Amino acid sequence: MAVALHILHLHSSFDLGGKEARAVRLMNLFGDAARHTIVSGVPGALGARAAIAPGIAYEIAQNPPPLTGKPSVARYEAIARFMRRFDLVLTYNWGAIDGVMARRVFGKNMPPVIHHEDGFNSDEADGLKPQRNMYRRVALSAAHGLVVPSATLEQIALRAWKQPRSRLHRIVNGIDVDRYAVPPGARAIPGFRRKPGDVVIGTLAGLREVKDLPMLVRAAGGVSGKVRLVIVGEGPERARIEAAAAAMDIADRVHLPGFLPDPASYVGLFDMLALSSRSEQFPIAVVEGMAAGLPIAAPPVGDVPSMVSEENAAYIARGHGELWLRDILQLFAANEPLRRRVGAANRAKAQRDYAEATMLAAYRRLYAEAVGAPGILG
């Protein structure tokens, strides 16, 4: 039996969000062809481990060198020593960029590093920081490759980070689309039951500032009719979301079940999927909503306007804010035939463009080529 590829994952955080969901899904699909060591840049932020399939060989690193802090040759050297025991290093987002810098500073006998950028937190949602752009340019010169999911990020990498196209790989997020066609059980979301006449707005998101979920609550609160809002996810913004619901006097119509695994088992309970983020690139939640045959209501962030079907593109808000989003939610809430027509077009596009097998093949090729062992990941 072939020796499993030993992969180190340096995550900015390992609580479950879009990038973590994709990374874990790839771990599950690689099966026994790889074993994994995971580092979270935020100590204790390990919620995504619950989605790792039984039988996958992995460990959470104990007392790894810190991934963040002031630039320090000593810290870079500690990270480099830690990295040298692995066959391949995968780094994710700004919070793990020092893993790439460690290879830049201490490159001798280092494994290949592939960096993944999926988007920005609230501190760069309204504009990139010049100092970080310069840091990325220097660090990423040592990476074997840079992976981005969106055309928007691809252009940022080329122009702001000065990355050569030869090292840049745009791989769109894919899912098992067919699983989303199975009707969900009525009790798939703990504590939530549809009532006759309900129109359910749903979203999947980490409860973080950049997702601007209080804005979604305010937008939903302005929609007339029997509207209910379900926000699936966990994070530090829960109290602010609950406060927004109370202020809008809709606390009894906003349901926060926390993190739920396996979105295919419950996304179909929604009538539409809403997004309120100040910054996104190629959100998996949008792909999941499309696969379930839902219309998407969202601001024009990242690739979202081009991700959705042509039928849905006209219903992407023209700006960010609760009034823009409220008007789109109202159109969908009041018109079931429109929801069905747009949702069917979205599902067809998801089947055509966002297949999990296509994404898996692209990552397999890239990772295997980086270690010089074609076929090692199946």
Tell me about the biggest sheet? 7 strands, parallel
Number of helices: 13
List low-confidence stretches: none
As a percent range, the share of helical residues equals 25-40%
- The Rg value, from CA coordinates, equals 21 Å
Number of strands: 12
Q: Which whole number gives the mean pLDDT?
A: 95
Strand adjacency order, main sheet: 3-2-1-4-5-6-7
Distance between the termini: 12 Å
Q: Sketch the topology as an H/E string, one letter per element.
A: EHEEHEHEHEHEEHEHEEHEHHHHH
What share of residues are in beta strands? 5-15%
Summing up helix and strand content along with how strands pair, one would put the structural category as alpha/beta
How would you describe the shape?
globular
Characterization of this structure:
The protein is of the alpha/beta class and 378 residues long. Helices cover 35% and strands 15% of the residues. It is built from 13 helices and 12 strands. The chain has helices spanning 18-30, 73-83, 97-105, 130-140, 151-159, 213-221, 238-247, 284-291, 304-307, 310-313, 322-333, 336-353, 356-370; strands at residues 5-11, 34-40, 58-60, 88-92, 113-116, 145-148, 168-170, 199-204, 227-232, 254-258, 272-274, 296-297. It has a 7-stranded parallel sheet with strand order 3-2-1-4-5-6-7, sandwiched between helices. The protein has a 5-stranded parallel sheet with strand order 10-9-8-11-12, with helices on both faces. The protein is globular and about 65 Å long. The two termini are 12 Å apart. The mean pLDDT is 95.
